[in-house]
Amino acid sequence: MDKKLYGDYVKILKEELLPAMGCTEPIAIAYAAALARNALNKLPDRVEITVSGNILKNVKSVIVPSTGGLKGVVSAAAAGIVAGSHEKKLEVLSGITQQDIEAIKDYIPKTQFSVQASDSGCVFDIGIRVFAGGNQAYTRIEGHHTNVVEISADGEKILDRQVTEEHADDGFTDRSCLSVKRIIEFADSVDIADVDEIISRQIEFNTAIAKEGLTNDYGAKVGKVLLDSYGYGVHNLARATAAAGSDARMNGCSLPVVIVSGSGNQGMTASLPVVVYAKELNVPREKLIRAVVLSDLITIHLKTGIGRLSAYCGAVSAGAGAGAGVAYLHGGGFEEIAHTVVNALAITSGLICDGAKSSCAAKISSAVDAGLLGYEMYRRGSQFVGGDGILCSGVENTIDNVSDLARVGMKETDEEIIRLMIKDME
Length: 426
Hints:
The chain is of the alpha+beta class. The protein contains 16 helices and eight strands. A hairpin with a 5-residue loop joins strand 5 and strand 6. The longest helix has 24 residues. The radius of gyration is 21 Å and the shape is globular. The relative contact order is 0.12.
């Protein structure tokens, strides 16, 4: 593989496979709040929060970890202000103690909070302004979860790096180098030493939270229900394991996960079914690492054209990636993997994202099922073909169509979902 292209693929994995504790949108709010508190250098008595609709959608119903069960924008910001460690970024709340939890709950009613919609037009936009006495500070995150574009204190700019929506991923390696064929070539040829640390961490963290979800009762217990209802066959176990990780994560579990495309749910969906199948097939660890690399990169490839946040459920992309990873474990090459991805996208591309919450676990189960069915269909000589609905001849053309559907076609759907969710809050 071309040396520069190889290096870019390694960089993409390192940029995407980050540890995070809790759903990443409320955690991004907590991170921004912790940065603002640090710039103010005192505990604020008034907090003004501005968020885009997609941030509100993904924060409204999910439990903020290490807060004793609190939900919502204000709770996430309060946790970051009172007890967040901004240096830890997406693990900003990882050091919270029971004493901190009580302090957060005490702080909220004593502090004047306001939340309003962003008018910037940016899908991912968080602004937090904090006040204490005659002092104020401000932090803004735009484009993706750790993309801090502004920090100021008393009107003095500490950081000023404004970006447009089109360039919100500045600093990331160009994702246009990704294609299914090249991803397979990279998975086949990658020096395991170049990816072992980040992939092993992904497997370790995500397996641990899935075990937690299968052991204890979190949310709607989708993972446990799947096992109780349909047994421990490898197909169902793969679905249940990924779902159980989401059960725990959406409902306040403080264990970290490794994210993909800014999402812990996608990080778990892309990796855990592959881990389950690798154990069933008793493949060498090196083969597992290569399969997870392939699943992660296909997930990232699918999500690149869609964007970080949209009305299109991100689990669909990760489920297709997982199906591709399982096909790879079975010895599949380009034909098997490409058709698995196309089949999976044909099945679940209508799945909407209506925010982070307990039902994400069930959507993950459906997305994993689609990925696995996509592979089993091709394995048995059955497939969806170009011209079926939004499918085109060629996997890359189908990916382009899905990207347009999610980013452009579902824009009004996204706005209506947000309107309905805000209506529910009134």
